[in-house]
Amino acid sequence: MSASNTASAASSPDGVAPASKRKPWWVSAAPPRPPVKTIAIALFAAAVGLLVLAALTVGTGIPWLIPPMAASMALVVGAPKLPLSQPRNVIGGQMVSAAVGAVVGLMGHSLWLGALAGALALAAMLLCRVPHSPAAATAVIGTMSATVPGWEFVLLAGAAALVLVLAGVLGNRFNGARDYPIYVW
């Protein structure tokens, strides 16, 4: 927005520019598409991180690659400046949520308990200051699946998240986001 648009938006009670100053609804206000090089490097970094988890899964028979890890990888390389993408949030959020899933899973492995675990994981992540939205799904998986027992699941989630963060650090170095991570702890 120009300075005059900003001033008029700021002077309105809700902080929204008057209708005469806004773009038509059919004109996207979304950020522009990243350059092809940026997309290619993000693709490569995401593939490396997720393929390492797949190889660990095949090699150990333990599920290192679970769907929330793909969502975490997308945040780390696709939006590296977001707080949700920082190592503290990725690793901490995954571990806190896995712990919630493991504890709730002690009561059983039902759809209802899985839903409860996802909500409890959100609260636990916020309390621990490590919100990471994909990790709520880790809690659901930890509750509904008995593939990896209790605390092993917590360590597994943390180790898998660490692999993704390392892949993200390398990918973001090549992608011009040299300041990733913005903070670690």
Explain how this protein is built.
The chain has 185 residues and is an all-alpha fold. It has one domain (36-175). It contains seven helices and no strands.
Instruction: List the secondary-structure elements in sequence, H or E.
Output: HHHHHHH
Helical residue percent?
55-70%
Q: Average pLDDT, to the nearest integer? A: 89
Uncertain residue segments: none
**How far is the N terminus from the C terminus?**
35 Å
For the CA atoms, what is the radius of gyration? 20 Å
Structural class: mainly alpha
Query: Which of globular, elongated, flat, extended, rod-shaped describes the shape?
Result: globular
Largest sheet: none
Taken as a percent bin, the fraction of beta residues is under 5%
Number of domains: 1
Number of strands: 0
Count of alpha and pi helical runs: 7
Descriptive tags:
single chain, 185 residues, mainly alpha, 7 helices, globular, membrane, Membrane protein
In short:
With about 180 residues, the protein is an all-alpha fold. Helices cover about 65% and strands about 0% of the residues. The two termini are about 35 Å apart.
Give the arrangement of secondary structure elements.
Layout: H1 3-11, H2 36-60, H3 67-78, H4 87-105, H5 111-127, H6 133-144, H7 150-174
Helix pairs in contact: 2-3, 2-7, 3-6, 3-7, 4-5, 4-6, 4-7, 5-6
